[in-house]
Amino acid sequence: MATTASVPMARIAGGPTENDAGCSPDKPCRLTVLGATGSIGTSTLDLVGRNPELFEIVALTAQTQVEQLAALAIRHRAKVAVIGDETQLAALRELLAGAGIAAMGGEAAVVEAATMPADCVMAAIVGAAGLKPTYAAALQGRRVALANKECLVSAGDVFTKAIAQSGAELLPVDSEHSAVFQALAGSDAAAIEKIVLTASGGPFRTWTREQLAAATPDQALKHPNWSMGAKVTIDSATLMNKGLELIEAFHLFPVGVDALDCVVHPQSVVHCLVSYKDGSVMAQMAPPDMRTPIAVALAWPRRMAAPTEKLDLARLGTLSFEAPDEARFPALAIAKAALRRGGAAPAILNAANEIAVAAFLERRLKFCDIASLVDDALEKAEKRGLAGDAGCLDDVLAIDAAARRLAVELMSRY
Ligand code: NDP
Ligand code: MG
To answer: 57 and 118 in one domain?
Structure first.
């Protein structure tokens, strides 16, 4: 059974730290954005573009969208632009010709970008592909604004150890974790009774099992509240996202598994509920726009403006809450079991889920089979002795690769 292994509170909460990277016009924040062309990356750069005096862009990275990367690098006067897909390096060089921006390509170059001198690294690569560069950024002892939840899910102990040893500062970007981070600030960890993350319930919240069985990628990609990348949007539809987020919360906050829970809140206005022993419950509210948690992470311990819709509770009228239905959405229970199992089970869960989500998006797997495939992979991995502890990042990467092979192998049964 997993035990508490969170980052010390001082590393993720509280007032100014020795790093005090929060941006101000007197001291612009040197910022690197990993995954600059994605949903989180472009929202981050939207904030940068609106507050140019607060930031200097060091490096921007992308995997394949070379034209968008070059345009962003030119617009934000980045020092370096990195394309993960090395075959596109020549195109990147051509697009940046004469702009005074260095072009680099390949997986190792993305990792190198993560370690360039900067005050803050926004870790917004999707999936386990974000592990190596985000880990490299953490080892530098700087501020890591963490959007990539897979890092804490797959490599939680290894990653939090690197943060603690290097003196890096971890600021959660995932909206629920940013909410908890804000609701906890300054509190005594011993006084926390429960941390509850909210879930929108996704596009299929009210669907029957029969409807879910026929759900298509187009339907699953239509999230009612949030605009996000494809992978996390599908995870929201299966509720795997909330399972991954409970694992993420376990590593971020100083509470045990039993003190973590989630509740469905279809309006996505309340993002967390932190209960204290004295009966107080601190909720964080904001309209569903990722630019708020991104701004919190970039500016902390200060605050910066974000151009989001202002919350109008009188207009909203109703905020509702309901228990998640784990019978219709089994991914949540599967993720909770992996968290309790500990060891490499969360890494296997994540790897199998990435394979399953990609197959669903390519119409090779049915919606309800996403959770079944992940469950099968976890069971098989346990039998094959893959679920033991991972001592270092290479162990995590090896387990991730083995779990992917296993999930692909099992896919033939579906
Ligand atoms: P997107 O799919 O929109 O963007 C992913 C980014 O990562 C792109 O810049 C992409 O480049 C890059 N990328 C993809 N594959 C690789 C790879 N193999 N190596 C290096 N870079 C790669 O994702 P999101 O922005 O939605 O999500 C990013 C992370 O943040 C995820 O972990 C997600 O769970 C988390 N998150 C996202 C939220 C959201 O609102 N979007 C909310 C909370 C958490 P290219 O564009 O060239 O393919
Ligand atoms: Mg979230």
So the answer is: yes
